[in-house]
Fold this protein.
Amino acid sequence: MAIESLLPESIRSRYALKLLGGALLIGLLITAFSATTVIDVTDNVRDEQLYSMETNAELEANALAQWIEGNQQTIRALSSHRGLDPAAPEETAAVLAREREALSAEVATLSVVERSPATFSEGTDEQILASTEPTYVGRSLSVTDVNWKPTVGFNFDSTDDVILSWVYTNEDDAALVAVASPTPDGDHVLVGEYRTDIQAESFTSVIDGTKTQVLGGFTAFVLFDENETNVITPYEGDRANTTIGNRILDTDPGAELNGSVLTENSVKGYHSVPGEAVDWVVVKEAPRQNALAVSESIRGDLTTLVGITLLGFLLIGVVIQRGPIRSIQRLARQADAIADGELAVEIEDEGREDEIGDLRTAFRNTKAYIETIASQADALSRQAFDDDAFEAAIPGRIGTAMADMRGDLRRFINELETERQRYSTLVEQSKDGIAVVHGESLVFVNDRLADITGYSREELVGMSYANLVVEEDLAGAHEQAQRVLTDANPADQYVHDIETKTGQRRRIEATGSKIIHDGEPAVLINARDITERQRREQRLTVFNRLLRHNFRNRLDVIKGHAERLADHTEGDHAEAVLTAADRLATLGSRARRIDQLVARDPNPTTVDVVAVINELLESVDTEENETTIETTLPATAELRTDAETLRTTLVSPLENAVKYADSTVQVSVTSTPAGCRVVISDDGPGIPAAELDSLAAGTETDLQHGRGLGLWQLKWGVDALNGDLAFETDAGTTVRIELPALGDNSDERGADADSDNNGIDDSDPADGVDDDSTDSNNDTENNDDTDSEA
């Protein structure tokens, strides 16, 4: 349909024209297919003929190789003939004449030539002693015009050697090739001259007009052909500018050459003649029109077929136009009326029993079908789900779809209303302020946001969100909104201040997400009032700093006065005060140590857990209660973790196990797929259930609390190392610590803590003494009253 819409109206409105166009298109496709077929056939014929020409050239080259080899064997055999006696030239000449008569007509002459084996010869000065050509006798070998190969000359490796000359022409311009082999005495040579023109007469071809030429493998000169018209001349007059000549000149001598060439007027195949002493290349060349005659015949046949096909389509179009098309046009006008909503149009019955009559009956049934669908669709649009129109059955898939649509629409409307009420309830009861910002204005707010800002919902809707944000945070809030709208990696949370209707400043923690409002991008804002939380955190920070430093300073004062009282009074009261002060100082030091532990970011390094445990066990005093420590430790247990946090975590359970054990403490370390496991057991009374309940609850109350910081130090340390902690108190106490390997960015507490602190500095400029400097040896001592068994 999309292609038809591109046609002119005059063609789209006439089926006959479209049929004609279709016929023409099919004709074009057939033509294209025929053309493609012709091209394929032509290509196949061309490829086959090229291959055939190359194969014929190869066969001819093999035949020449056999011819040369046979001549070489003949000369080799004749050179050993007993009748060849250089001392009797006349008898030798008679023997040569008889042998020449017995050989083929290709043998031009046979001659016996003297030879100087010790001297390199070019084959020109040697004297001919006997020959079938009487004019040669007594003259030098140069009279024969033989052109010996420069690399070999007229020299032999042994008396069994045979040499082959270049192709040359004699004084009669006949093309010859000479074969020579030494006689058994080694001082004479039998030379046979062969006529190449007679051998050329045996060339065969399968295509009329084929021409066979033999080229020199070094020079690309024509050595001989069938009619000797181009003997010892450059190939095609300009050998370097022909494909075959250029290949011969560019190829190393002696390398095999083969291939085929298609030119404008001819088809050529070439192949080198096999044999180490042969440097000839056979070229077969056939007229192109003869070689590719099959493709021309196919092209003509296909053209005739295409013409007949187009004529047939034209006749079919005329018949269809004068028959079915007119009836179809009438039905088309009636169908257009139905499509325009005129369901009262009458589709007459002409009593036809052919396909046109069936088409009219089908149109009448379709009209009734559409009327039923229209009545039910109208009832659905009015949401009249119980209308009488639904009593009429609609057969087929559309009827099933209409019934499903009726049920789904009724259910959807009910669910939509329920969902609307639920969503409204969630939004209105949310503890966060919710707003939708479209452009610069608020288009929706809930009651909670109205409570936070002090404005009514009516006042907020239509107000610019920028009017609520304080001036110094306005640019950041605008940038965050743009990041949300453009999906440019917005922050998960953005903290900024707003000004309420009464002028009060409130701190807001907001998150934004992109939504579609009325078909356009908007920002959904969840705003949480964190003003009171921030103030509470500030108070806790200040109180912690004041209590930490004042607590230590006051203890120093108490200890100083108690020491003076101990020096000037008798009794244990001053000593009790000093002991209590020391224990309070130890508790404060441990609290500071734990605070530093949970506040700092881990620094993962490779730590030997076994070495750390051994180091801690050496510092534990076991003599006071005569405790035996049994260890099950591997040689090493390396783990990537924070070394300082690991020591601080493990010291508490080790000290308390030794302190509260009746007799034995067991310590083991095993490797796990995730890291390692540390198990510390003692046979003491066990940790009180109330303290474990406080630890499990994560907080302490007036009724549920521990007696010290040991358990909390252990728990917070394990949490800082991303580990798991478990206790068993059935028989004594067993502490199981699972420690995983930490990555470089494994600890997220630091980031969370930094965001909660909101940039508040809890350092005390007035305190010039390092917390650890005064209590460096108290972290693990005097814990009797500050720690229960942990």
Remarks:
- The CA atoms of residues 45 and 293 lie 9 Å apart.
- The first helix runs from residue 9 to 12.
